[in-house]
Fold each of these.
Amino acid sequence: MPSTSDDTQATARIGVTGLAVMGSNLARNFARHGHTVAVHNRTPTRTRALIEEFGHEGDFVPAESAQDFVAALERPRRLVVMVKAGGPTDAVIEEFAPLLEPGDMIIDGGNAHFADTRRREAALRERGIHFVGAGISGGEEGALNGPSIMPGGSPESYEALGPLLEDIAATAEDGTPCCAHIGPDGAGHFVKMVHNGIEYADMQLIAEAYDLLRHVAGYEPARIAETFRTWNTGRLDSYLIEITAEVLAHTDAATGRPFVDVVADEAEQKGTGRWTVQTALDHGVPVSGIAEAVFARSLSGASALREAARTLPGPKRDPLPAEEATAFAARVEEALYASKVVSYAQGWNMIGAASAEYDWGIDLGRVAAIWRGGCIIRAAFLDRIRSAFATDPGLPTLLADRAFADEIGAAQESWRAVVGTAVAHGVPTPGFSAALAYYDALRAERLPAALTQGQRDFFGAHTYRRTDRDGTYHTLWGGDRAEERRD
C-alpha cells in the first residue's frame, strides 16, 4: 500500500480505524457520499479486503500504520474509532493521541459507557484534542445506508464534524437529518444507552403481545403476523412492529414449522440494557419497563432454574372462543400502545434527569427528532413526541402531554383487562404489568411509601417529614407510648 506520511498526501476528510462490519460499512457510507476516507485496521489484511471489494464505491486512502493513517487526514483531523468498548478503545486512543495536534478530534462510534466517554473527553481536552462520543444506531444496515447518530463533545468539534455526520445519517420524512449535537462530553453515549434501554422495553412488550395472542387468543404465528401487519398501518407503525411481522411469518426451511417455534426461547443481551437500569438506579429514576425487559431476558436464559420450576401449579392456558379472541386482540393493541408510551416516557425522564445533573442542556424534542429514522426504535409516534417537547420544553413527563394522556386514558380499560386476563391464564406480562403499575403510581394521590418511611424510622431512626408542618421528625418507638421529636 502507498505511504501517506508526507503532509501533501493529507487528502482524506475523515478516517475510520476498526474495519469490522460496522466500521467498514460506516467508511463505505462516507465514501458513497463523496468524502475521501482514510481506512485502517490493526490487521492490514482487513484493510486490503475492504479496498478490493468496495474500493469502487468511492475514494479510499488505505493505511497500514497509525502514522500513515493520521498523515492521510486533512486538518482538523477527524478520526473515527470503531472497535470494541472498554480496553480496546483505550488502547486505540493511546496509540493515536500522541500523533494528533490540538484541534484534532477522536470520534468513538462504539457502544461505550458514558462514564468512560466523560473520562476520555476530560483527559484529551487537557491535550487540546476533541473527543466525541457518538452513539450510532441502526446496526450494520444503518451504518451503510443511514443511521441515527447521537454525537456528544464540544460545540467546536461539531462545527467541523457535524456536516459530515449529517451527510451520512438517515433522514426523517420531512428531510431532516437524523443527527444532531446532543451535548458535552458523555451526552451522546448516554442518549444512545437510553435508546437501547427503550429498545429492550419495546421488544419485550411486543413479545408479550405475541405471547398473549398465541396462548390466550389461540392464534398461530402466521395469523399473528397479519395482526402485526395491520397494527403497523396505525399508531403502532414502527420498525420493530414491521420486522416482528416478518419474523412471525417466516417458515423454517428444515422443518416446515413456524420459525419462531424452532428458535430456543433464550434472549441474549450485549449489556446496554443493563447499563441503563444500573445508571437509572444511580440517578434515582424509575425505569421499570426497561428493568423488567432486562430481567425477562436474564430469566429466559436461566435454563436450570426454569426446568426446576416447570411443574409448579398454575392455570391451564385454554384459548378464548373465536369471537372473544377477536375482541381480546383489539384490547392487546391498546395495552401494547399504552405500555409503549409509558416506557418511552421513562426513557425521556432518565435523559432529562441526567441532562440536569451533568449540565448537558439536552434538547429532549431534538432527541425524538433524530430517532425518527435510521435507528432501531424508529416509529411514527416519535414525531408526536418531538412536537410535545417542542410545544413544552419543560414537560415533566410525556404522560402529562394532553394528547398522550387522553390516548392512554382511553386505552386503560383494555389495558387493565389484558393484564387481568394474562394473570388468569398464567401468561407472564412483566412489561405490561410494570407499565400499568407505573401509570397508577403516578396518578395516585398518596402512595404506601408513607408506611415504608415509618418502618425505616422505627428500625433505623431514618426520620420522616410530615404533611401538616415543616421539618424533619423522628419518633422514639417502644413502650406503651411513642414520642415524636423534631430532628
Amino acid sequence: MPEASSAADEPAYGRGLPLDPDPAQAEALLTRASTLVAALFDGVGDRPVAGTPTDPAFVAGLLADRPGEAQPIEAALATLMEAIAQGHESRTGGHLAYIPGSGLLTAAIGELLASAGNRYTGLHAPSPGAVALEVGVLRWLCELFGMPEGAQAVLLSGGSMANLTALVAARERHAPGRPQLATVYVGEQAHASVRKAARTIGILPEHVRVCPSGDGLRLDVETVRVMVKQDRADGLVPTAIVAAAGTTNFGAVDCLGRLADLAADLGVWLHVDGAYGGFFRLTERGRARLAGIERADSITLDPHKSLFLPFGTGAVVVRDRRALVDAFGEEADYLRDLPDADQLPDLAELTPELTREWRGAKLWLPLKLHGLAPFVEALDADLDLAAWAHDELAAMPGVTTCGPPDLSIVGFRVPGDDAAQDAALAHLNAEGRVRLSSTHLDGRVVLRLAVLSHRTRRHHVQYVLDRLRDWLERPTTGTT
C-alpha cells in the first residue's frame, strides 16, 4: 500500500493565491471584495453619469497585459476597480440615455453564489435543486404574461438571444427546411437585433419586411395584412410578425390585440419584443397598455432592464413548450446515462445552449429578498416621471414632443435643424450629471429622455428641464 503523500510532495502551482484558497484565505479575499462592492453602491444614485474620464494609458496597459507572475490581491483588485470606473456610470439615476440598466446588489450576490456553486443547469439530473429554483421563476414569468398550461420560459443572456430563439421557433413551426422562403414583418422602430436574428437563422434580408406606419412609431396592422397576403400569393412563407411592447427608440407600444387577431387569422407566429417594456405589466397602467401581449406566441423580456438586474439577464416566454423542443431538442450519445426528465425540464433542449450558467439565482434572490412590491412601485414611479417630463417639455415654447409616452421614454425636438438638436443634447450632457441620447424619426434627429432606473428621481429630471430652459433662453439658440 503506497504511503500517504506529505504536504511537501504536493505540486506547487505558483507563488500567488492557491487555486483553492483555504477557508481563511477565502474569507480574507471575500471580505476585501465585499468592502469594494459596498463602495460601488455607496451613493450610486446621485453619482455623475460621466464617471471617470477614460485614461488612454490605463487602457493601453490592459490591452498589453498578459498572464504571468501572480500579483498581490490588493494590486489586482485595484486594477479591476479602475477598469470598472472608466467611462459612464450606467447605474446612476441621471442615466437617461438609451435604455438605462441600474443593477441590484442582491442580484449580484445571487450571481456570486451561483458562480461559486458552479452547478450545471443545462440538464436537470446533475443539479435538480438549482434547476427547480430556476424553473419556479420561469413558471412565474409564464403566469405573469397570462400564458396557458404548456408554456415555457427560458433565461438567456439578453434580448438579442431571446429574439433569435423566438424566431428559430417560429421558423421551425411555419417554414421548416425553407428559411429562404420565410418572411418576417417588423415595424420601422423594430430593434436591430430582430433583423440580425433573422439573418443569422437563414432568413434573407430582403424577406424581413419593414412595414411603414402612419405615425412612424407603431406597426400598422392593415399594412402587415396586405404584405402577408401578397407574399403568400407570391409563393413565400409568412412566418412571424414581430410587434413591440415598448420600442427602444420611443417606448411605443404596438396594437397588440389587433396584431394578435391578425396573426391568428393569417396563421402566422406573433412575437412580441418586450425587452424594454414587458415588465411594466406588473403595474396597473402597464397591464392596460400591454393588453393583448398574453396572446403572443412568444415574448422577449429583459430583467436586466425593467427589473433592474445586472446586464446579461434576458428571457423568452413561449406559448407552446413543444415549439422550443422542436427547434432545439437534440439527442447525444454521451448523455445516455442521465435519467429522463420527470417534473423538471432539461433547459438545454429549449435553447441553443448545452452548457449554460445558472441564471435563475440572480433573478430569484432579489424577488425573495425584496418581494414584488418595490419593483412595482419603481416602475410606477418611472411612468409618473416620464409623463411629468413630457408635460413639462410640451409646455416649453418651441419644443415639440413625439406625443405622450406609452411607457417611460419621451422623444422631443428643440427649435431648429438637426444641428440644433445635437447642440442642445451636448448642452444637456455637458456637466456630466445626466446623460440623454438621440435617435431618428422620419429622417430627423430627435432627443430622447428614457426613465427606467429605480434610482431615477424627480430632481434628476428637473435638472434636465432646467438645463433645457437655459438652452432655450440663450440669445442665440442653436449654439453651445
Amino acid sequence: MLLKVYSLSILTLDLIVLFFKICFEIFIALYRTLKPVPLKSLHKEVVMVVGAGRGIGKELALRLSKLGAKVACVDADIASCNVTVATAVGVAKSYYCSIIDEEEVAQTVNKIQHELGNITMLFHCCGIPSPRSLLEDQPDVREIIDVTVLSHFWLSNKVLPQMKQAGRGHIVLLSSVAGLSVAARGGSRVTTATAQFAVQGFAESLRTELRHSHNQNIAVTLVHIYPFIIGIEAASDIRFRIPSFFGTIPAKEAAKKILEGVRRNYEEFSIPVYLLYLRHICRILPKKASFMLRELLDTGVDFV
C-alpha cells in the first residue's frame, strides 16, 4: 500500500513539473514569435549546397557567398554549377556529384574537406518537385526515392563526422509541402508524397539521435516548401483556387526567407509560413473536416 502511494506521489510530482515545463516552453515560443533570436553569422562557415546549379539551391549558394561563407556548390549538372560559382561574389567552388552514389558522395565530401575545410553546414535542395514536373507523366519511383530519401543517408553519414570534428554543424533539409499534406488528386502523388514524408521522418529521427548522443551543437532544420509558389514562369500551368491566398514568389525571395529561418536555428518552418500552422490544424480536425479544408485550398492542378 505504501509503495503504491509513493509511486502515485512520484508520478503526480513528475506530471506537475512537466506541466510547468511545457507552459514555460509555450511562453518562450510565443515570446520568440514577437521577438525572434538574432541572426547568427555565417562568416567562414564551410557550406555544402547540394543542387546549387539552379532554383533555390543556386540562390542559396549566392546568398551564402555574400554572407562570407565558403560555398561548395554540388550538382550533377556541372555546367549549371559552374555558372553559379562564376556569379558568386565570395569563395565558391563547383563539384560534380551524383548524390545517389554513396561512393561518389564520400569522394566529393572528402575533396571539399581537403580544399575548403571541415563542412559545417549542409543544404539539401534536391528532390523538391516543380509545378511543371508534377504535370508530367508518372516519374521513375526508384529515382525519386534515391534522390529524395537515400541521398540524405549518404550525405549525413559522410558530413556528420566533419561537423563533430569542427565542434558545430547545421543540416538543412528542403522538402515539398507534400510531406505535410498529400495533393488532392493525381497520378504522381503517391511517389512524391511518400518520399517527402520520408524526408520529414528522417529529419525528426536525426534530430532525436543527435540530441541523445549529446551532439546538440549540431542543428537540424526542416523547411517545407510549397512548390507552386516558386518561380512565376510556371504560373500559366497552375489554376489557383484562391490566387490571393497563394500567389507566387521567385526563388530568390524564397532563399532569403529560408536563410533567415536557418540563421535563427528554427527546427522546422515552411515557405510560406502559414502552411505549417495549417498542417497542425488539419491534424487535430476530424478526418472529413481535414479533407474539406485541403480541398478548399487545393491549387486545382490536375496531376496526370
Amino acid sequence: MDWWYRLKKNPLARFGAILLLVFYCAVIAADFVAPYDPYASQANGSLLPPTQIHWVSQSGQFIGPHVYPTTQGDTNLETGDRQLIVDYKKPSPLRLFVSGPKYRLLQMSLPLPPKWNEVTIFPGIPLDWHLFGTTSEAKINILGTDDQGRDQFSRLVYGGRISMFIGIFGVAISFPLGLLMGGISGYFGGVIDSIIMRLAEVMMTFPGIYLLVTLGAVLPPGLTSTQRFILIVVITSVIGWAGLARVIRGQVLSIKEREFVQAARAMGGKPLYIILRHVLPQTASYVIISATLSVPSFIGSEAILSLIGLGIQQPDPSWGNMLTLASNASIIVLQPWLIWPPVVLIILTVLSFNLLGDGLRDALDPRSLRR
C-alpha cells in the first residue's frame, strides 16, 4: 500500500479528493441539502439578490441569525434599478435541520428504451427534513433567485447530479470499450489490429465538440432531460474510446510477450480469457489515472451542449444550462450572482479531478515524482 501512503502525503491530491467527496455527497443528498424544490417559483421573487442574513433586530437586540420576507417591487424605468420590498416586521429565524417539502432520499429510477418507461431501482427514504431553512414564511435564498423566481442554490445542488455524474457514467462506458478494443488489437495483431486501429483513427479525426453539437441537434425534441442525459453519455463515450484503445494496444504489445502470458497460453487458455484475466489487469495503474483525468472532459461536453441549448433542457437544472443566462448582457451586469456559482463549481470540479489524477500518477508511478 505504498501508493496509498504517497497519495495521502500529496496535499494537492488530498485537497482535490476532499473537495470531490464533499461535492458528490452534496449532490447525492440534494433533496436534503437543498432547502427548496428546484422547480418551485416564489411569488414576486424573480431575480432576487442573495438573501441578507441579520443577527440583530431592528431595535438593536441580538436574536440570532434571521432573515426578512423579501419580494421584488417596481422597476425604475430611468435607471433600471429594481426596488426590493423587505418586511422588517416579520423576522424569520434560520435553523439547521428544518421541516420542508417532502421528498424521497436516495431514490433511484432509470428510463429504459424503447418506450423510455422509468423503472424504480430504489424507492428511497421518505423524509421532509432539510439541512437548513427558515421557520416561517420568509425564504432564505443564499444565492438569490433566477428569472423564474426559483431558488438558485437549490437548482445548483440538483444540477450537480447531472453535471458530475455524466463524467462517471461516461468513463464507465468508454473505458471498458477502449480497454477491450485495445486489448484485442494488441494481442491478436495482424489484420484485426489494422482494422481496429484504422477505426480508432477515423474516430479521432472527428472534432469532438462539433460532432457532439451535430448529434445533439438531431436528438428527438420530445426527449426528457433524463433521456437526453443517457444519450449524451452514450455519444460522448462512443467518441472517447479511441485514444485509450491506442495506448492500451501499445502496452498489450509489450505485456503479451511476458512469461506469465506465455505460460497461460501454453496451458490452453483462450485468447479472450488471457486478455481479460492476465493482460488488461497489468494496465490498471494507467487506466485509473487516465479515467480520473478524463472525467472533466465529459463534464465540459455536457456544459457546452447545455449552454447552447442542445443538452439538458429547462426547467431541469444542470450547471451547463444554468449558464444560458450568461447570454443576457443585463444579467451579467445586474445579477452576476446567477453566473458565477455554476462557473466556479465547474472550475473547482475540473481542477479537483486534475489534482487527484496527478496525485494518482505520482503515487502509482514513483518515477514520475517531481524532484
